[in-house]
Amino acid sequence: MTWFTPEGERAWAGPGWDPHYPQPDRQVGPGTVFITHAHIDEARTVWVMVNHQPARVCYARVTPEAQAGTVSVEVVDSGEDWSSVEVTYDLSALSEHGAEALDRFANGYDAEIRGWQTAIVQALGARESRGA
Questions:
Q1: With 90 as the cut, is the pLDDT of residue 6 above it?
Q2: What is the CATH number of the domain that holds 99?
Q3: Which of 22, 66, 75, 115 is the most buried (most CB within 10 A)?
Q4: Per the domain annotation, does 131 fall within a domain?
Q5: Boundaries of domain holding 67
Q6: In the β-sheet with 56-63, what is the strand arrangement from edge to edge?
């Protein structure tokens, strides 16, 4: 689940993923707050980690004047050197602009999740080549 924490995503989510913390010494665990300017439409989004367990993490997120809701990642199956996760977005539009952005997001969702898989596999390979 480390790969799905704000800092863990830095290894694979690309240069647009750059979380900033109002409380810099608090970067993991329920109640952690961070802000990004990436994701849906490059808008400023405030995230709050509401659940962090060994096999599940859940965030509440608000993009003002656009959308709000939750994002969760849960391990649904795993083996010695692999795991399968389920990513669930439950977002509501707060405006017409937000509804349009969510429609674009929904239309590209499958490709985005496949991109996550590719990026994580590449990050794992890079980590293994460094001996980490």
A1: yes
A2: 3.30.530.20
A3: 66
A4: no
A5: 2-125
A6: 33-36, 45-53, 56-63, 67-78, 83-93
pLDDT of residue 50: 97
Residues 53, 37: Cα–Cα separation, whole Å: 26
> Exposed (0-12), middle (13-18) or buried (19+): which is 112, by Cβ within 10 Å?
exposed
Encoded tokens for 13: 């989510």
Long-range CB pairs of 96-99, under 8 A, 24+ apart, other chains included:
97/65, 97/66, 98/63, 98/65, 98/66, 98/67
Phi, psi of 9 (to 5 degrees): -70, -20
pLDDT tens per residue across span 59-105: 999 999 999 999 999 999 988 888 899 999 999 999 999 999 999 99
CB atoms within 10 A of CB 128: 9
For the segment 30-47, what is each residue's pLDDT rounded down to a tens digit?
999 999 986 556 689 999
Indicate the number of domains in the chain: 1
Which residues make beta-bridge pairs with 47?
34, 61
